[in-house]
Amino acid sequence: MVQPTRPPANGFVAAARKVYNPLGFAKGYNFVLFFIFFGAFMGFTLARFEYLNFSIFCGPGGAAPGECFYYQKRIEQIGIKMHLGAILPASFLACFQFVPVIRHKVLLFHRINGYLIILLSLVSTAGIFMFLRNAFGGGIETQTGVGLLSIMFIGSMMLAFINIKKLQIEQHRAWMLRAWFYAGSIITIRLIQITAATVISNMGTYYVSRPCDQVAFMVDNVNRTLALYPDCASYFSGENPGQQTVVHADLPGATSAAEAGAAVGMVFGMAVWLALAIHAIGIEIYLHLTPAEAERLRNVSYKRQLEAGLHPAGRAGITADRIGDSEKWQPGDRSGQNRSGHEDVDPYFYVPASNTDKVNYIRREVYDPIEALGSSATWYVAELEDLEETLVIGCGTVRNTDDCRARGTHLVANKLKNTIVVCPSYFFNNGAVASDEAEEQSMSTWRLERKLLPAAGFALLHEVSHITSVVGDFEYWTDELASTDHAYPPSECIKLPDLRRINNAQNYALFALDVRTNPGYTSKQVDMDIKDPQQFALRWLRAGVSGKTEEP
């Protein structure tokens, strides 16, 4: 379950979070888009599951008028059955692939389901080409449009498959989104088709040629067929089995099923091209509006490719900087600038001094939320029953907290439950951890000797950077939740690879300690002088977990 990073703006947002946070959505707009597009896709799919019964599909209210005439032929009947029998289950299962909590919590299902969807999609697309020649009149514009849609759908799915096999997650996401948005154009095709058919029917000036055998199948009465379409006399006499006749396109006021079939058939090709263009442009707009998510996933890809031994890490899949002329991507470099050995860099995150965008981003997404806990907690105190949006700091014992039994453990953070457990050693250890003197000694030793002494505030800051609801928006977290623990000694922290350095909780605590003990590095300092501990405790409780008074 994803935890919110800030208090809800109103009651509606608070109620909405109880719906979309358990599904794994961190941001409301993502859930809204999912609900609209995949909700419609799921509804459309479920409404057509009855078509798996071929007699229902070719019965009243099923396929478009005249389409089932060609499905009497064995090859085309096999094709439509293959298509419906594969694409409907594939579409149903695909909707679950885009639910974040399933991807994160039930990864095995996500993988097996993905393989099954790809297999079903291949079968369904093969079926399309078995009946495409005569679909909706069989016009060239229809055949090329449906053919292109099928190629784009399968091509995107294959690119997504290749990329995930190379652990190129951001490309897998992009191509899978493309594939199913292309497939989803079938809904838009239907809307455009019905609208256009109604428009041309009202105009009353559109006609189309149809074979007499199909017309006779739709009218289902020889005498009435001859009365409406006298050109078909040569067909019934056997003189010309391939005789065609002109049919008026009219959907709402049709005098026969042939006129309704002509109306929906002659606009189908146009609907395919227009709907495909709308969906193709729409998904590209979405992908270009979410570069932060793509960058976050690319950093995740970099980590997993390193662990799997794939080379080159970060671009082992099909990426623009590997097969094209794009600038080489650098892990953890949000601005995309190449690092120079002659430029001043921060030792804890390896951020160039000139890269102010990334410096500000780290401050905004990691340090500012921690600092803001003080003001946010005022609201939480009034709403303590909503523990999902409250950072809880509690005391543990070696009896009830397994992690506290480990030697040297002072605090334990649970990323997803918004809790930090304080172990007994945090309060004792001869005062070396939790005391004002220890805090002052820690800062003094760091300032003069660059040696790290354990202190309560330092340890607490370290643990807060593990809490997803506080820092979960940061795009560089490799586990997509919060900071992790790769190293503790300062000498080891600054030697970490770039991506681990920006993910290591101790690096954030060390940077904060550096800023605290060297005032020249910052414009804001924390006042550690407390005149009245009792009043301070009350102010701390009301203000929140940041506690200390701040002044310029």
TrEMBL record:
Source organism's superkingdom?
Eukaryota
- Compositional bias annotation for Basic and acidic residues: 322-331
UniProt cross-references to InterPro entries, sorted A to Z: DUF2306_membrane, MetalloPept_cat_dom_sf
What name has this protein been given in UniProt? Lysine-specific metallo-endopeptidase domain-containing protein
Pfam families annotated for this entry? DUF2306
One of the entry's Gene Ontology molecular-function terms is: metallopeptidase activity
Q: Transmembrane segments in this chain: where?
A: 28-47, 82-102, 114-132, 144-164, 176-200, 260-287
Matching Gene3D superfamilies: Collagenase (Catalytic Domain)
Residues of the region (Disordered) are: 321-347
Ordered alphabetically, the record's keywords are: Membrane, Transmembrane, Transmembrane helix
Q: Which organism is it from?
A: Colletotrichum gloeosporioides (strain Cg-14) (Anthracnose fungus)
